[in-house]
Amino acid sequence: xxxxxxxxxxxxxxxxxxxxxxxxxxxxxxxxxxxxxxxxxxxxxxxxxxxxxxxxxxxxxxxxxxxxxxxxxxxxxxxxxxxxxxxxxxxxxxxxxxxxxxxxxxxxxxxxxxxxxxxxxxxxxxxxxxxxxxxxxxxxxxxxxxxxxxxxxxxxxxxxxxxxxxxxxxxxxxxxxxxxxxxxxxxxxxxxxxxxxxxxxxxxxxxxxxxxxxxxxxxxxxxxxxxxxxxxxxxxxxxxxxxxxxxxxxxxxxxxxxxxxxxxxxxxxxxxxxxxxxxxxxxxxxxxxxxxxxxxxxxxxxxxxxxxxxxxxxxxxxxxxxxxxxxxxxxxxxxxxxxxxxxxxxxxxxxxxxxxxxxxxxxxxxxx
Amino acid sequence: xxxxxxxxxxxxxxxxxxxxxxxxxxxxxxxxxxxxxxxxxxxxxxxxxxxxxxxxxxxxxxxxxxxxxxxxxxxxxxxxxxxxxxxxxxxxxxxxxxxxxxxxxxxxxxxxxxxxxxxxxxxxxxxxxxxxxxxxxxxxxxxxxxxxxxxxxxxxxxxxxxxxxxxxxxxxxxxxxxxxxxxxxxxxxxxxxxxxxxxxxxxxxxxxxxxxxxxxxxxxxxxxxxxxxxxxxxxxxxxxxxxxxxxxxxxxxxxxxxxxxxxxxxxxxxxxxxxxxxxxxxxxxxxxxxxxxxxxxxxxxxxxxxxxxxxxxxxxxxxxxxxxxxxxxxxxxxxxxxxxxxxxxxxxxxxxxxxxxxxxxxxxxxxxxxxxxxxxxxxxxxxxxxxxxxxxxxxxxxxxxxxxxxxxxxxxxxxxxxxxxxxxxxxxxxxxxxxxxxxxxxxxxxxxxxxxxxxxxxxxxxxxxxxxxxxxxxxxxxxxxxxxxxxxxxxxxxxxxxxxxxxxxxxxxxxxxxxxxxxxxxxxxxxxxxxxxxxxxxxxxxxxxxxxxxxxxxxxxxxxxxxxxxxxxx
Lengths: 368, 570
Prior knowledge:
The structure holds two protein chains of two kinds. By secondary structure, chain A is mainly alpha-helical.
């Protein structure tokens, strides 16, 4: 991609100026660049400084996450059984769906950089809105996953208390409150912008309204994917929903009663497991013992899972904040062939957030 | 060419076309919202000096308590909190930002010949992050104190009921402040050097700040995530550092020292940069081994990342790991020694003048020499087992951090003080203060080497009677050191009120900051400065009329036969 090129000198081809709001765009005849800070000698120097600064910031981000990847590596080597067992609580299809959503958002972000470079104002606004919406969808899917784990008691170490059946709590609803508020607030601001005939404000809040609503699309996706998955594998939706809780189900195919017995053993010591399982035969005893050992440190996997995905989620939110800022500036027509640095830099950040997820997905979801 | 001719042909000093940065705007808002690197540097200076006062008073209280083997006035718990806060305040609030954020912020753009750092708003944000971090530290004092030691080792830090979370969040915020400074400096040096300012024409202070920035950018994020994990461990019980839940407390030590050992070089590298400037200027001689000093800064920055395990020789690390870390530790002494030898070679046959900054530079070389050489005993596996967690370690790192960083900071402060505030201080009293500080420092910390080698453990509020003499010696030294620092502060404050107006170049320095007025104009330079080789002193001559040095534009004619410049000044 042309994301690494410096702004072209003076006359750039304004071929695709599809925006139509030329009054906001750069006057190509201006002798002085309105976006050139006083302490830089040229637009190129300013662009280079910004780009290098962003790369350095990305280095700090990678090192920030490196501590977590390091902890992951250490504990996966010291407690491999915990990691292998914990993986069954995660639905790879949901992780895959989110991976696809984020990769797509990286595409639209990179395309947005190109649109800015070519001065395609309307396309730029649309692409940024799609990127924002993808981020929302990602968070929606994540909310479904988090709330489901909350219901099953699959939390970090000190709160790790897996249940066989999910108890129905309003966790998903509570997690969705910020998005609901965002929908209401952006809708009101959109209406205000329309009624006061402030087109830039109206467009901006309209785009953010789409973004906020996209969250519920993500929630829908998160709920539908397991059902489709179940339809394909032949299990019912309810079974699939509780698939994660029934770890034994995946390991040994047994009746529900026996599952409960092994489950019971898992919550106690290895001795308890052995005595309980003795009635069910030697094969089951071995299985039960296996499960009993597994459960001891499974919580640490979920500590790492929640810290890593939580921090990643915070980075998604921060990225949404800066992309919204880009969106507003795009609506003001700030970006064009001679000035597109901020779009480029935020794009780099967004790709990094995407990249970290691309590592998290296999490391957390695909290790069973 | 006659003497008169050379005097009249002096180069123009930048700063006549606009007001200086102190007077170009007035009112508190012109400071609080300033984007000028010089004003941000001054605000940093005030802030870190306040922290230094706080940490210093704590140190004196600690030493006073240790005057007797039994309780004097501090309970054991109070003592634990006091040394923890002394260490945390001195490390995170004073030493790390001292030279880079205060002196560096002011001097780096001027030395480089640019108007400002690359991201002025980020620079201001860095300062306010520092302020927020400091507020969190103060909150930690109010919310039950902190008694973990500045290292926050688990499992104690996850079980004590002091304000660990507040203090850790403070460290997290201060980390970002440090990252922003480093990022800004690195981008500024990489992308904004003016025409003629090649990498190898950069003053060595800038090389050292560049090396420091590398560490700030690469190491500090790891401290950030370590702090967050510690907060999560305490607040949520994630078990990452808890053996009962499958975690490992030694992992915390690895994470912590992965930052905190390189952080030692964040503290010492800029100090070495300052000393490089001082030694050359006050010897009126080109720095010896410029490239070696420049590269050794980078070498120290990179090697510093490979030695963190030497803090954990007794933490149950494998014998192989300990051996490797020990060997790597010794490699750091090579670039450090390169610097010391080059400073000595620069002084050899130089025209040394013992102005106050040079007195500090000489103190630095002496004290850093002791601090560095005693480090070898701690890097060696067998001796470290004996010396670990004793006063030997305390004395060693105080020789490097105080004898190194603080002394160089004071040297740099005295060197650039006329540039920063446009006033000269009383040379005699400033030198006296330097002498008292030097004597007081050695009296405080040299006995601690003896204490440590005889088995006095660190962090103890009470001690055995056999150690009384050395402890009382040390405490007396600390009081002398305190007096010296108060005198030093008095001299500088006096200069602000009564000091003679400073010339543009009071010391005969050859780097770019001396080419603008004292204090510098708001935009540093009236026009892009002409950059030549640094550390050339032939064309800088003393002018009694200005009571400072002026630059002679025409290079003195050379004798055709010998190539020696014809004497053009007396």
